[in-house]
Amino acid sequence: MTGKWLLYGASGYTGELIAREAVKRGMQVVLAGRSHQKISRLAAELGCPSAIFSVDDHTSLVSALQDSVAVLNCAGPFSLTARSIMQACLVTRVHYLDITGEIDVFELAHSVDDKARRAGVVLCPGVGFDVLPTDSVAVKLKLALPDAIELSLGFDSRSGFSKGTAKTAVESMGEGSKLRRNGKIVSVPLGSSTRRIDFGNGERLAVGIPWGDVSTAFYSTGIPNIQVFSATSSGGLKRLRRMNWLRPLLRQRPIQRFLQNRIERRLQPPDRTQRESNPSYVWGEARNAAGEIKTARLRTPNGYALTVTSALGILQDLLADPQRAGYMTPTMLVGSDFISTLPNCSTIRIEP
Q1: Could you tell me if residue 341 is inside a domain?
Q2: What is the pLDDT of residues 3-44, one digit of tens each?
Q3: What CATH number is attached to the domain comprising 190?
Q4: Smallest Cα–Cα separation from 344: which of 298, 286, 295?
Q5: Among 38, 45, 67, 160, which is 20 to 30 Å from 185 by CA?
Q6: Which domain covers residue 91, as residue numbers?
Q7: Separation of alpha carbons 37 and 34, rounded Å
């Protein structure tokens, strides 16, 4: 493994976790972000070079990428950062990875597949808990049931949210939930799809959510009908459904900024103990036209702990073989067995 790479958003919750682990692995990382104080302090502590710039400053962004093989974007909401960094990567011929779960970012990356191939760069969003585990389950189910026409995926993760994840959720609420129907992504009311699922830790109520696999699983498997579920409580479901009345307000940028500022001031992200004591359970179900069903389950570490090892593992794989290009989902890049090579991840079990 060789090559210098840029970690943008290094001072955020997940970005800092990744930065610290990257240094432990001896990787050649440049820590980057908007905050001079935070980035400089972290870079000095870890002994890393740094770059301070906003993604809106195209000249500085391109300059920072000039000597890098790849960039790992950890600055959410990714709706505000991914497009600019992808564009700069296409110009500088630098590989792009991120840890988003935002459907629009996946669709954006897919839409410029031809440009990425011509530039000789990989565009692979979603290399963290969003969406590597569910993407891997999706591919395993497709292999087990090749003629599947319906795919349901889901997870039970209880560790709480980082500030970036919560801010992204604020933006998505105004658009409702999403699923893929006959190959097309469609919007549906929040809380409109529910079912009870045994994710691998006992049966729980689950609700449909606008998770990234609504986009990515289609490209990984070709299955035309896809929905993603997350474990919830009856109270959480009621609150989610009430949000439908507020969706017009939640689409307004001033309201989003107000709520995101409250999150920045008040939310306490999970600490190390919370991460280590809350594993995640991933589930999937494929169905064909004849009604045959295959089910899959996977146990992983806490989503944030997994994101650190999966993002760096995929990056190391890319750095070891950088002669690849185009839009790729995580499994298109590293395969569906990669997830089970990561620390504290089980193999994917297919039933029956």
Answers
A1: no
A2: 899 999 999 999 999 999 999 999 999 999 999 999 999 999
A3: 3.30.360.10
A4: 298
A5: 160
A6: 4-129+304-334
A7: 9
